[in-house]
Sequence to fold (182 residues):
Amino acid sequence: MLPFQRDIHPRCLEILTEHSRCVWRKAEALARASRYADAVDYEFLREASMLHDYGIVGVDAPGIYCFGTAPYLCHGVLGARHLREVDGVRYARHARVCEVHIGTGLTSEDVVRGGLPLEVRDYLPETLEEKLITYADNFFSKNPASLCEEKPWARVCESIGRHGEGALERLRVLRGLFEGTC
Ligand SMILES: [Fe+2]
Fold:
């Protein structure tokens, strides 16, 4: 399933696979219970969920067995770049998910204001599948001790709230889309 499995530390692969599976299950459950149930590409949702964090293999995060050099924040663009290198047509939509799923997405203003190590542009989820995976991802950490423990809504808000009111508002909009409440 993962195009670069051989380059990944075995523990990182376990964490990545388990985390991604949790995100997939939540994204699929949200989709099927939502008003968009008939419009979602479920096979793509599964594939993209399993690949969305692939870029962590290139970051410096030894706590989750990632021994690359890039800042953690770069895992989205790194994953997208790798997927496009493997097959830019086959993985075009998957690469987009990698790029836009960080937090609730990032605006060019977020990149500038935060001095983030990214090209200045928007990284915002647009399609249903991008939004589902981005939203579902916020409920799970990659902490090996609590991989598939779903975070309560208050903790999700607390984490996203640290990145400003814009990020929190995007979270509320995503919740409204898929859970019918803000
Ligand atoms: Fe994730």
